[in-house]
Amino acid sequence: MEHAGTEPYSTPDKPSWPPVAVPGQPAGRPSPAGGPPAAAIPDAAPASEGERVLTELREQIRRYVVLPSEEAFTAVTLWVAATHLQTAWQHAPRLAVVGPAKRCGKSRLLDVITESVHDPLITVNASAAAVFRSITDTPPTLLVDEADTLFGSAKVAEKNEEMRGLLNAGHQRNRPTLRVSGPNHEVAKFPTFAMAALAGIGDLPDTIMDRSIVIRMRRRRPGEEVEEFRTYRDTPPLHALRDRLVAWLAPLHADAMELTPAMPVQDRAADTWQPLVSVADLASGTWPGFARTACRVMAKHEAEQDQDSSSLGIRLLADIRRAFATEGNPPALRTSRLLDILNQDAETPWPEYTANGLTPRGLQILLKEYGISSAPRRFHGNVQARGYALLQFTDSWARYCPEPVPEATAGA
Predict the structure, then answer these.
(1) Under a CB-based contact definition with an 8 Å cutoff, are residues 48 and 90 in contact?
(2) Exposed (0-12), middle (13-18) or buried (19+): which is 390, by Cβ within 10 Å?
(3) Tally of helices (H runs) and strands (E runs) in the chain
(4) Is 197 in contact with 95 (CB distance < 8 Å)?
(5) Which single residue of 53, 245, 277, 396 could bond 370 by disulfide (Cβ 3.0 to 4.6 Å)?
(6) What does the angle CA 32 – CA 10 – CA 276 come to, to the nearest 5 degrees?
(7) Who has greater pLDDT, 130 or 365?
(8) pLDDT in tens, 353-382
(9) Conformation bin of residue 192: beta by default, left when phi > 0, alpha when psi is -120 to 50
(10) CA separation for the pair 205, 212 (Å, rounded)
(11) Cα-Cα-Cα-Cα dihedral of 164, 167, 170, 176, to 10°?
(12) pLDDT value at position 24?
């Protein structure tokens, strides 16, 4: 859970640059290695057109929106650039622009990136059928505003299950949707692969968030100033940057397809971030370091968010690990003692799980799907009681709630 005054993607030893967007004043950001502010370092000539255009795009985005961290600016910039090489990627990362309330800048960010992505296809309430019929072998970039109207409640989400399925399938290449069409009722395949940005209040469905670069927007504080976005005035510069992205990236399509960048994360997070890191590697200069820092910090933050809000079973596993640590990691804990620890923590759901808190029966039911059960054991003083062995949990802890990788070894 975030605390007031802290940055959601910051870490104590490597704080992000405060997200104050002042038009015309991009200087003052810390170096990616934690050195002196960029303003204190003499400007060096950008190594490539890629580095120049990415840097200019990032500063254009900064003119109009306040993002939660410098890593978020890096991620949005690289995501926009990656849309221009969609056909080179194996995965099409989603950009989930979410916030807790109105007026957090979600729609403004969507307005800005709309003018710089590849072939934008904007929708608020289009049907899934209309969307997948708009996706071709050279896919557009889907831009979905007010996504909370599609998935905001269980009833609405059920009605839009087809759209959720399309967005899930379209994250990976060669996952077409099948439909019966025509007078002969023939089965037709429709491609689903396309990059997509979705903006809305509150988190999107877990299956979409798991395939997304997540930008957690917040309302601006006093003093966080941005320029108003005016289509007539501000679109031409963004279109000019879009054209430069195309001119830079189009000749690199074959190179992009062959890239296998070293990633600081694994599994689906690596699949989702790989196009962004690949674009950074194509740009060279400072961007490969920026990209991997953003990937590591933001993916770690989302993993922690997911653990906090995931199923009760995974939450219980994590809380039991803390209970064992509190007791010095003994070989086993009595069920009664384990429940005492769990039910005394007011920051967890267990004190209010039932009128009497979490009970032995409730604990048994929640742990059953992980193959963990209590058994009669002997404890200190030769007391026999039912309890749980530490070794019963180690496999499930490693699979469902692993300990965070230390920063020093995250990229090793």
Answers:
(1) no
(2) middle
(3) 16, 10
(4) yes
(5) 396
(6) 55
(7) 365
(8) 888 899 999 999 889 888 899 999 888 777
(9) alpha
(10) 11
(11) 30
(12) 39
Q: Using CA atoms, how far apart are residues 393 and 395, in angstroms rounded to an integer?
A: 6
Q: Are 82 and 93 in contact (CB under 8 A)?
A: yes
Q: Which amino acid is it at 54?
A: L
CA-to-CA separations, 129 to 123, 125, 182, in angstroms, rounded: 13, 12, 14
Structure tokens that stand for 170 in this block: 């379209």
Name the one residue in this structure whose structure tokens are 């505003």. 145
Measure the CA angle with vertex 278, ends 274 and 282; round to 5°.
Answer: 175
Angle between helices 70-82 and 267-283 (to 10 degrees): 80
- Report pLDDT for 44: 57
Average pLDDT, the chain: 83
Residues 6+ apart with CB under 8 A from 60: 112, 116, 237, 238, 241
Q: Is the pLDDT of residue 280 over 50?
A: yes
CB 64 within 8 A of CB 112: yes
Is residue 173 a contact partner of residue 195, using CB atoms and an 8 Å limit?
no
Backbone angles phi, psi at 300, to 5 degrees: -65, -45
What residues contact 336, with CB distance under 8 A and at least 6 apart? 360, 385
Residue count of the chain: 412
Contacts of 7 (CB under 8 A, 6+ apart): 15, 16, 18, 19, 68, 69
Selection from 35, 93, 46 nearest residue 295 by Cα: 93
Q: List 91's β-bridge partners, or say none.
A: 172
Pick the more confident residue, 58 or 191: 58
Query: Is 0.90 topped by the overall pTM?
Result: no
**Residues near 118 by beta carbon (within 8 Å), at least 6 away in sequence:** 83, 84, 86, 140, 141, 246
Taking the C-alpha atoms of residue 145 and residue 167, their distance in angstroms, rounded to an integer, is 14
Q: Which amino acid, one-letter code, is at 113? A: I
CA angle 85-124-112, nearest 5°?
50
Give the whole-angstrom CA distance, residue 102 versus residue 218.
9
Give first-to-last CA distance, the chain, whole Å. 28
Question: How many beta carbons lie within 10 A of that of residue 220, not counting itself?
Answer: 17
| Whole-angstrom distance, CA of residue 298 vs CA of residue 291 | 10
Backbone phi and psi for residue 179, each to the nearest 5 degrees, phi listed first? -140, 145
pLDDT value at residue 60? 96
Q: How far apart are CA 193 and CA 90, in angstroms?
A: 9
Residue with tokens 């830079």: 248
